Amino acid sequence: MRLAPLVGAAVGLAAGAVLLIALVVGIPSLVAGVLGVGTLALLTRGLHLDGLADTADGLGCYGDPSRALAVMKSSDVGAFGVVTLLLVGVAQVACLTAVTEQRAVLPILLLPAVGAATGRAAITWACRAGVASARPTGLGALVAGTLSPVAVGVTTLVVVIGAALATALGGPTVLRGPLAVAAGLVVAWALVRHCVRRFGGITGDVLGAACEVATTAALVVLVIEPWSLSVPLTR
């Protein structure tokens, strides 16, 4: 779990390479964005997306924690899961499309890596000491509470420094990387906190959901255009 952000960075670089190849061969930016998100899903076999859908269904159902956990364990995907997958998928495609439209090598390669590394850093945070497992078995039980505050802090610091270097080299600014990491971790922290209160702890699905929402939030921050005080108003 301490090395999860490193794996994320590698997956993000692979997605960035796909974006770059798509740009070189003349594939439109929107299609390139779809291919980039598809690469992220393919390299993880859709594991985190499955967790996102299951977590959304669990949070959307009525009943006690045991009922919610049973819904999450079911192989069916409900309406909450489908809508959440669509929204997150569209958001990620839009972000990678915006990255591709910059038509610069370093942003195309490095910005997806920052987003994916942030998503995996959210998994590291979710495994910190004091976070319980919702089930006695499964991935959540295996990793919940296994990382000390020092381990989580060191991993986070490495991710923040790496993100700062990536956005210093690939744009937009050195501060954008740390801001993206912070946004991703805050959103994931809020989700995990809610899941712990709703389910009684984390599960493997919750880890996947935290990864996807953190990745998405980080990518959104990375592609925000510089603010302008001049806003044209039309009727």
UniProtKB/TrEMBL annotation:
<feature type="transmembrane region" description="Helical">
    <location>
        <begin position="105"/>
        <end position="127"/>
    </location>
</feature>
<keyword id="KW-1003">Cell membrane</keyword>
<keyword id="KW-0472">Membrane</keyword>
<feature type="transmembrane region" description="Helical">
    <location>
        <begin position="204"/>
        <end position="224"/>
    </location>
</feature>
<protein>
    <recommendedName>
        <fullName>Adenosylcobinamide-GDP ribazoletransferase</fullName>
        <ecNumber>2.7.8.26</ecNumber>
    </recommendedName>
</protein>
<dbReference type="Pfam" id="PF02654">
    <property type="entry name" value="CobS"/>
</dbReference>
<comment type="similarity">
    <text>Belongs to the CobS family.</text>
</comment>
<dbReference type="GO" id="GO:0005886">
    <property type="term" value="C:plasma membrane"/>
</dbReference>
<dbReference type="GO" id="GO:0051073">
    <property type="term" value="F:adenosylcobinamide-GDP ribazoletransferase activity"/>
</dbReference>
<feature type="transmembrane region" description="Helical">
    <location>
        <begin position="26"/>
        <end position="43"/>
    </location>
</feature>
<feature type="transmembrane region" description="Helical">
    <location>
        <begin position="174"/>
        <end position="192"/>
    </location>
</feature>
<keyword id="KW-0808">Transferase</keyword>
<comment type="function">
    <text>Joins adenosylcobinamide-GDP and alpha-ribazole to generate adenosylcobalamin (Ado-cobalamin). Also synthesizes adenosylcobalamin 5'-phosphate from adenosylcobinamide-GDP and alpha-ribazole 5'-phosphate.</text>
</comment>
<keyword id="KW-0460">Magnesium</keyword>
<keyword id="KW-0169">Cobalamin biosynthesis</keyword>
<feature type="transmembrane region" description="Helical">
    <location>
        <begin position="77"/>
        <end position="99"/>
    </location>
</feature>
<dbReference type="GO" id="GO:0009236">
    <property type="term" value="P:cobalamin biosynthetic process"/>
</dbReference>
<keyword id="KW-1133">Transmembrane helix</keyword>
<feature type="transmembrane region" description="Helical">
    <location>
        <begin position="139"/>
        <end position="168"/>
    </location>
</feature>
<dbReference type="GO" id="GO:0008818">
    <property type="term" value="F:cobalamin 5'-phosphate synthase activity"/>
</dbReference>
<keyword id="KW-0812">Transmembrane</keyword>
<comment type="pathway">
    <text>Cofactor biosynthesis; adenosylcobalamin biosynthesis; adenosylcobalamin from cob(II)yrinate a,c-diamide: step 7/7.</text>
</comment>
<dbReference type="InterPro" id="IPR003805">
    <property type="entry name" value="CobS"/>
</dbReference>
